[in-house]
Amino acid sequence: MTDTVSFGYEDVAPGEKTRRVGDVFRNVAARYDLMNDAMSGGMHRLWKDRFVRRVKPREGEQILDMAGGTGDIAFRMARHGAAITVADINGAMLEVGMERAAKRGIDGLVWTEANAETLQFPDRFFDAYTIAFGIRNVTDIPAALKEAHRVLKRGGRFYCLEFSTTLWPGFADVYDAYSHRLVPKLGKLLANDEDSYRYLIESIRRFPDMETFKGMIGDAGFTQTRVEPVLGGLVAIHSGWKI
Q1: What secondary structure does DSSP assign to 105-132, as a single string?
Q2: Which of 55, 117, 130, 195 is the most core-located residue (most Cβ within 10 A)?
Q3: What CA–CA distance (Å, rounded) separates 2 from 239?
Q4: Known binder of ligand: residue 88?
């Protein structure tokens, strides 16, 4: 862990990032779908469907959905009969997820407050570990990846869905203008919270590119690592296996 880490375009102490990210997600928890719609033009639902198809959850499996407080990924995976533990460092996000599950009549999920960097679960416990749009908000990403590796069984699989940097000429400039200029203003208009939305866009720009992050997953001990770009890399599905 370095002396400073990125919080959007700022460099701050690790503890300060953890605190400020917590504030951001407490602020946006009740408007989570609105946040994702603003950042993705509503396409996040299709990306999450695609992500779960790659994970291939199966009946009887134990799956940890990290940073999954609002339940978007867990609800999709639970349809396949897997036993899902939804973990999030932010209690406000978990509260939203539990309320949504109750409204939809979805039961059987385990909800727990947990820090991705210091998980309380035993070694070799889960068949799969998923994290969607959460890894870039972790203070110590290498520590979180090592913890993901630790809690997976041999033969377990790691899947991460995250914003990245599109390589499509032209489209990158259009999205950059949209995200930096319009998304914070939408946050102000729709949620009265411009600063949180600005941080979320800036955090994407500071996140490692696809190949760099793929290397970080390998450094954590995973093998057969791969990356699947979506929209030229605007979003990427990263994966790896524990053997």
Answers
A1: T----EEEE--TTS--SPTT-EEEEEEE
A2: 130
A3: 26
A4: yes
For residue 174, give both structure tokens.
């259009």
The tens place of each residue's pLDDT in the chain, 243 residues long, gives 668 898 888 888 999 999 988 888 887 787 777 777 776 778 889 999 999 999 999 999 999 999 998 899 999 999 999 999 999 999 999 999 999 999 999 999 999 999 999 999 999 999 999 999 999 999 999 999 999 999 999 999 999 999 988 888 887 778 777 777 777 787 787 777 788 888 888 888 889 999 999 999 999 999 999 999 999 988 999 999 999
Residue 78 annotated as lining a ligand binding site: no
φ/ψ of residue 78, rounded to 5: -60, -25
CATH no. of 5-241: 3.40.50.150
Cα–Cα dist 74/128, whole Å:
12
With residue 22 as reference, give the H or E element that holds it: helix 14-28
The answer to whether the annotation marks 116 as part of a ligand binding site is yes
Answer yes or no: is 70 a known binding residue.
yes
